[in-house]
């Protein structure tokens, strides 16, 4: 199985190839009809102590969340996206739910909404962060235990005003994109059955908040059916920010057309490629946020904190970057200093 770093080499090309999907020109080709989430501005939050997705809750650290939630407010943030996983629930259900209760209390303290990611399918073969097992999604239907996880987790916090939305999975269908077309189709359809069933289970808990699924940047390879099972279309545009941002703009316009076609709101739940150059990263952030806000798309940048995860430290980079660069993607150092070039005054300077 190929890793995300190999995959991202190709998604850079896909971002540029997306120009075939839209007319020439720098302005949006179609206006987003449902702009319900245009006010969202924030980050993906992977706590600085977390080396894996399970560490987030298994080793929940209230003081770290409180301190690091506070850091995001210097950017005028109003939302964070946080991942967790079923295995943490399975290991200690009481600890899991109490940790999230404390986390939501902290969100309220800092005037933040949380997009809660319930599992992950993104893979980095060198620095694995943790994901739902392949064999699980290929069953085509969540097990009784996984269904209990969905119902219990969503049901417990279904009326919390601090929950922005429930993200059923980060980047499903991810590994299939490198496969031969016939194989890709069969495996993708099988996984789609799993997430269709999972969405139905989550909705059975009657949450007041919407359900979404974070879709990776090679958008043309995601099954159209995934947009039918969500309440909010959630995209991850990264590459193509160079050369007048043609590829990046076209990717955004593609998702606007999808959201409008499905009659649903759109949110960007990951964006801003990385770089080892602080000056380059400043330009990446400037271009990415400018184009999103021009199209009235709310955004959650990758990633708030330096830490243990790949792209959160200088010795663990990936290829989510312009070809020839290496990706370091955090905004705030572990000691609380803003990374050079990442202060909002550095990049929010377009007319």
Strand order of the largest sheet: 1-2-3-4-5-6-7-8
Q: Based on the structure given, which CATH architecture is correct? A: Alpha-Beta Barrel
* pLDDT < 50 stretches: 1-25
**What do the pLDDT scores average to?**
91
Report the order of strands and helices: HEHHEHHEHHEHEEHEHEH
**Which percent band covers the strand fraction?**
5-15%
Helix content bin = 25-40%
Class from secondary-structure proportions: alpha/beta
| Shape assignment | globular
Q: Tell me the name of the CATH class.
A: Alpha Beta
Specify the biggest β-sheet.
Answer: 8 strands, parallel, barrel
**Total number of distinct structural domains:** 1
Number of helices: 11
- CATH-defined superfamily: Glycosidases
What's the total count of β strands? 8
**Distance between the first and last residues' Cα:** 45 Å
In CATH terms, what is the fold-level topology? Answer: TIM Barrel
Radius of gyration: 19 Å
In short:
By secondary structure, the chain is α/β, with parallel strands linked by helices. Helix content is 37%, strand content 11%.
Task: Describe the overall structure.
The radius of gyration is 19 Å and the shape is globular. It has an 8-stranded parallel beta barrel, surrounded by 4 helices. It is built from 11 helices and 8 strands. It has helices at 4-17, 55-58, 62-72, 86-91, 93-109, 134-137, 144-156, 181-204, 246-262, 278-294, 344-347, and strands spanning 41-44, 79-83, 113-117, 163-170, 211-215, 232-235, 266-268, 298-301. The model is unreliable at 1-25 (pLDDT under 50). By secondary structure, the chain is α/β, with parallel strands linked by helices.
């Amino acid at each position: 199985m190929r890793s995300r770093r190999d995959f991202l080499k190709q998604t850079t090309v896909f971002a540029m190839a997306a120009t075939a999907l839209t007319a020439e020109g720098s302005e949006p080709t179609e206006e987003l009809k449902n702009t319900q989430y245009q006010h969202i501005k924030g980050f993906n939050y992977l706590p600085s102590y977390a080396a894996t997705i399970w560490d987030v809750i298994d080793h929940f650290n209230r003081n770290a969340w409180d301190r690091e939630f506070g850091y995001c407010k210097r950017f005028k943030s109003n939302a964070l996206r946080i991942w967790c996983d079923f295995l943490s629930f399975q290991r200690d259900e009481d600890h899991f739910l109490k940790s999230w209760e404390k986390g939501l209390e902290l969100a309220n303290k800092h005037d933040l909404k949380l997009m809660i990611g319930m599992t992950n399918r993104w893979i980095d073969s060198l620095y694995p962060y943790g994901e739902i097992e392949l064999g699980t999604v290929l069953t085509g239907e969540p097990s009784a235990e996984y269904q209990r996880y969905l119902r219990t987790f969503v049901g417990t916090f279904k009326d919390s005003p601090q929950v922005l939305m429930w993200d059923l999975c980060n980047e499903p269908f991810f590994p299939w994109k490198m496969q031969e077309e016939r194989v890709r189709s069969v495996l993708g359809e099988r996984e789609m059955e799993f997430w269709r069933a999972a969405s139905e289970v989550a909705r059975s808990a009657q949450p007041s908040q919407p359900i979404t699924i974070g879709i990776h940047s090679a958008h043309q390879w995601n099954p159209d059916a995934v947009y039918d099972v969500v309440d909010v279309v959630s995209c991850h545009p990264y590459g193509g920010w160079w050369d007048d941002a043609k590829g990046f703009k076209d990717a955004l316009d593609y998702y606007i057309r999808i959201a409008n076609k499905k009659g649903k709101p759109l949110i960007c739940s990951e964006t801003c490629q990385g770089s080892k150059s602080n000056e380059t990263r400043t330009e990446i952030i400037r271009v990415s946020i400018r184009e999103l806000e021009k199209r009235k798309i709310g955004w959650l940048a990758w990633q708030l904190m330096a830490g243990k995860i790949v792209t959160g430290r200088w010795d663990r980079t990936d290829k989510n970057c312009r070809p020839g660069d290496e990706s370091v993607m955090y905004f705030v150092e572990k000691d609380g200093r803003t990374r050079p070039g990442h202060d909002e005054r550095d990049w929010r300077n377009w007319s």
